[in-house]
Amino acid sequence: MLVEDAPESRSVVRDSSPHFPVFPEFRGASYLQRYEILCRKLTHERLYTTATVLASPRTAASTGEYLELSELTSLRTFITNFAGHIAA
Fold first, then answer.
1. Which domain holds residue 46?
2. What is the greatest pairwise CA distance in the chain?
3. Do residues 42 and 59 lie in contact, with contact meaning Cβ atoms separated by under 8 Å?
4. 55 burial type by CB count under 10 A (0-12 exposed, 13-18 middle, 19+ buried)
5. Domain presence at residue 2
6. Which of 2, 26, 53, 59 lies most in the core, judged by the most C-beta atoms within 10 Å?
7. How many domains does the chain have?
8. What is the pLDDT of residues 7-50, one digit of tens each?
């Protein structure tokens, strides 16, 4: 079951980094968006074969709800690629 929205995890993160600059693509992004960007970069640079980002509310233990951010980091894409990797 897919969750429509998870507002707490979609809040913009304050960009304060006293020692290192924040990457431009992370500015104004929530933690979920940052994880999704990281997964896309890791697969694009072929450091990972596939990656997924899933978020769920606390009620998901009983409902099974979850949120996907993009097709590239979806559960279906992850399972399909993982199954292909195992079959090879």
1. 7-87
2. 46
3. no
4. buried
5. no
6. 53
7. 1
8. 556 677 777 777 888 888 888 888 899 999 999 999 999 999 99
